[in-house]
Amino acid sequence: MAISTGNRGVVYTGPGEVEVRSIAFPELSIGKRQCQHGVILKVLTTNICGSDQHMVRGRTTAPSGLVLGHEITGEIIECGRDVEFLKVGDIVSVPFNIACGRCRNCKEGRTGICLNVNPARPGAATAMLIWEDGLAVRPSMSWCRTLTLIYSNSLTQTKHGKKFVI
Fold first, then answer.
1. Is 143:44 a contact under the CB 8 Å cutoff?
2. Residues in domain Alcohol dehydrogenase-like N-terminal (predicted)?
3. What average pLDDT score do residues 64-90 get?
């Protein structure tokens, strides 16, 4: 994968240290595995999350060289051949918790405790990234808040029109 000077990311280099670096332009593959069910996004916005801050402050483990960021809103600039419901130019939001959809927990509807959550790949604090399988939603609020609401609702089975507090 060649380095593209047009793609930069916020890279964690150690406790208390981050750098903006040129990084590889994403491809529809992870290692030797083709990801024809994925898309490549041009990042429009991303959040600085508490987990990013914990990594930078050394409160959790993170490998040096990790591109930080998640909770992405971006424009699709390339689609894999197996993508069915999205197209180039669509604006989508990507949750912080990317479940595989295939493990036992996901098949039982417990995507919040996916056994293969968030496969290793660069984060969203970059210009371009790959995103596999997802939910197309017009961005209107932070994904962290949105998914907390969706997941809480699935646990409580709250009906339309009812109120609950998280």
1. no
2. 37-124
3. 86
Closest of 65, 67, 48 to residue 126, by C-alpha: 67
Residue 93 three-state SS: strand
The pLDDT of residue 89: 94
Residue 88 predicted with pLDDT over 90: yes
Q: Tell me the domain boundaries of the chain.
A: 3-98+118-146
Instruction: For residue 45, give the 3-state DSSP assignment.
Output: strand
d(CA 27, CA 25): 7
Four-point Cα dihedral 107, 92, 60, 122, nearest 10: 100
Name the CATH superfamily housing domain 3-98+118-146.
Medium-chain alcohol dehydrogenases, catalytic domain (3.90.180.10)
| Six-digit token string for 29 | 């593959």
